[in-house]
Design a protein that fits this description.
Rossmann fold; 10 strands
Length: 264
């Protein structure tokens, strides 16, 4: 795996760097840190002749902090630090287009690159989208949700999905039952996460699960989508996971598919 970290020296950028290092250590691969100094911001700058000099000194300190993080936590991991000048977002997009990373990690200040990047962008911290249906399938993702929240400081958006397309007008009672069961499970998972101090929000949508998941991911600019997969229990979420995995070009957001337990 190739990971690119857009680094601006902030606390969030440091968290993104540490997250990337842990991911490479776990899955293998290489990591590149890209720091961009924006000289254009000093055009017509009236804060004094030393403004750029002071800012460059600050940038040097930011890079030194990044080097220390890498020295302390990335032993044995192939890493490199790249420093460039120009518009921050455009430079990151251009570099990603030529370096072809599998994942781009960035602080929220880079949210403008999400829809333009040619690879998945994980904003840290951000919002993790967790779809829920009328089964207990999503319970199998709870441990990974906790891990991601702990590592990134992200909040969670729970998306209750009702597959309304499966029911005809004559099957109103069946649809009402599915809506009720989905709502119950949505509230259950929400309470479990809230009780652990995780910030959550819940919404309900009706339609094809894979389409509703991708619509919500775009609408709320989520950082990651966590879906269950596998197992024997019938679940529309598992079908959605299979569809999305089979059409990866449709999903521009990072996707984490978690094997579901047989008892879910």
């Amino acid at each position: 795996m190739k990971i690119l970290v857009a680094y601006d020296g902030t606390i969030h950028a440091k968290k993104a760097l540490k997250y990337g290092i842990r991911k490479i250590r776990k899955e293998g691969g290489e990591l590149t840190l890209l720091h961009v100094f924006d000289r254009n911001c000093f055009v017509d700058y009236d804060a004094g002749p030393k403004a750029e000099e002071l800012t460059r000194a600050e940038a040097a300190q930011q890079l030194e902090a990044a080097r220390n993080i890498i020295l302390e936590t990335a032993a044995g991991i192939p890493t490199r630090i790249v420093s460039e000048e120009g518009d921050a977002e455009q430079t990151v997009l251009r570099y990603a287009a030529t370096d072809h990373p599998d994942l781009l990690l960035a602080p929220p200040s880079y949210k403008g690159i999400v829809k333009s990047a040619r690879c998945p962008v994980y904003l840290i911290p951000g919002t993790i989208l967790v779809p829920v249906d009328d089964t207990d399938t999503s319970l199998s993702t709870l441990d990974r949700i906790r891990e991601e929240v702990a590592a990134t400081g992200s909040k969670v958006m729970l998306l209750g999905v009702v597959p309304i397309h499966l029911y005809s007008k004559e099957e109103k009672r069946g649809l009402e039952k599915v809506e009720k069961e989905t709502s119950i499970r949505l509230k259950r998972i929400n309470k479990m996460l809230v009780d652990q101090g995780i910030e959550t929000k819940k919404i309900m949508r009706s339609g094809y699960p894979d389409e509703e998941i991708m619509k919500a991911a775009d609408e709320f600019s989520v950082s990651m989508v966590i879906l269950p997969s596998g197992g024997n229990t019938p679940s529309e979420l598992r079908k959605a996971a299979a569809i999305i995995l089979g059409e990866k070009d449709r999903m521009i957001h990072p996707l984490l598919v978690v094997p579901a337990t047989e008892t879910a």
